[in-house]
Amino acid sequence: MAKHKSKHQHDKKQIGAKKGSALGTSAKDAVRSGRFRFAAAFTFFCIAFYAIIYALPPSFTKPINEHIATTLGLVLNAFGIPVTTVHDTVADGGLAFKIIPECTPLFTASLFLSFVLFHPATILQKVAGLAMGIPALYLGNLVRLALTFMVSRYDGRLFEAFHVYLGQVFTMALIIVACILWIKWIEGEESKQSMPMKAAGFLIRFVIISGGVFFGWMMVHHWYIRFLDWFMVLGFSLFNHRVSLAHETLVYYETFSIVTFTSLVLAIRSTAWAMKIKGLAVGLGLLFVIHLFHRIDNAVIAYFNFTAAGTVDLTLLVVGQYVFPVLLFIYMIRRQNNEIPVCPGKSL
User: Fold this and answer.
1) Of 215, 235, 328, residue with least CA distance to 289
2) Domain count of the chain?
3) Domain span including residue 342
4) What order do you get walking across the sheet with 84-86 strand by strand?
5) For the chain, percent helix, then strand, then coil, each to nearest 5?
6) DSSP annotation of 250
7) How far, in Å, are 129, 206, 277, 308, 320 from residue 287 at the CA level?
8) Is residue 216 part of a domain?
9) Which residue has the higher pLDDT, 212 or 313?
10) How many whole angstroms separate alpha carbon 283 and alpha carbon 127?
11) What is the predicted pLDDT for the residue at 131?
């Protein structure tokens, strides 16, 4: 009886060792895979680029800001809206738009550049993708700014909501569609025939879903900020510090990356609901951590005048707004391309 038990325990140890070895091998294979290398290179390049933009003195981005302001002024004047442009500011009476790096195509263009640069394709396909995609994103950004100016000129109360929606959701939709079109184009003739319809279908779903999620989030995002601040205040109280931040802003721009991410997950048809729920849980948890760090950084700057973490904070916010949703999109696309089994009969 003792021998039988000993043999049973030995077998269990062997099975456990085999499982551990299989898990270790699987993890090593995943790290060595092209999928992981692409995601890592793409993420590192974007983070480095964004950090450089925020770390450089304003004089480096000033010419770009002024160029966008001048171009926006020309477009608005062409549509019969008399505006004046002075350096990086476009004004019409009491309405003035000051162009900052986030208003330029710098972040979106670098995101698309990273995507094309590290995605498997020929040099000719990469050059063609950049030659078409970056100008399209430039024009899309210009349309966004012009529409925001026109709406704000009509009713200044609409500026906050319109600016946030076009600045995050609409911009993210442009990037995703640009990536979809380029991927479908390099896949071959069969994909080229159906890619406009697939891209249009995805864009329509994304716009409809994001509209509903956006207005819903407008109603509750102030409570989300208070929830974040509860954690922040609790953390500072452990070190005998009492802090509080104002809640006077109509729209907390930083938190609307939640709308973009959620809408993107729900708009993709190539995965089952169980996978979407898991993706939402992981993604929203990560965004919560990013937003919490942002509130803590604001408190540290306000109370202790410690600005060293400012660049890291802004970079993380942009990563949550742009890089993370695109990484999710890449994962879903690879599922659709049968690198991982997907729901039969469905496509993006």
Assistant:
1) 235
2) 1
3) 190-348
4) 84-86, 89-92, 95-98
5) 80, 5, 15
6) S
7) 30, 20, 15, 22, 6
8) yes
9) 212
10) 32
11) 92
pTM across the whole model: 0.74
Residue 219 has pLDDT above 80, yes or no: yes
pLDDT at position 19 is 46
Angle between helices 34-55 and 106-118 (to 10 degrees): 150
Least confident of 7-21, 40-54, 172-186, 212-226: 7-21
The CA distance from 138 to 171, in Å, is 11
Q: Is residue 314 part of a domain?
A: yes
340 CB contacts (<8 Å, ≥6 apart)?
334
Is residue 308 situated within a structural domain?
Answer: yes
pLDDT score of 118 more than 60: yes
Instruction: Give burial (CB, 10 Å; 0-12/13-18/19+) of 222.
Output: middle
31, 33, 40 from 26: Cα distances, Å: 9, 10, 18
With contact defined as beta carbons under 8 Å apart, do 81 and 92 qualify?
yes
Does 176 map to a domain? Answer: no
One-letter amino acid of 212: G
**Burial status of residue 210 (CB atoms within 10 A of its CB: 0-12, 13-18, 19 or more):** buried
Question: Above pLDDT 90, what percent of the chain?
Answer: 6
